[in-house]
Amino acid sequence: MRENNLQYKELTNHSWKLRDVTNDQNNPISEKTTYKINGEVITQMNSPELSETIKSKYFLDTVNREITIEYQNSKWKYKIEKLTTEEFNIKNSEGKVIRNIPY
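Above: the chain sequence. Below: its structure as tokens.
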């Protein structure tokens, strides 16, 4: 049975990396995302093509199992499919599941 109540500690205890995602050359994407307890998200992207750190905000809706990411004037809402200390899977508005594992 799925746990209905999400807890911040499951999200904020680690940094996360994308699982099974590759770039145009079929190389794994090196991205580290850290969710801070204060609602800040820090994403570090490292590849030969790009090295950048992006800071944004997140909001966790524990009742509806959703997470919203805000960056500049854009906002993305995802449905949380699974959130444990070993996996963080979210579904975008097109139904694509984005799988994350601890970094």
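The longest strand covers residues 51-61.
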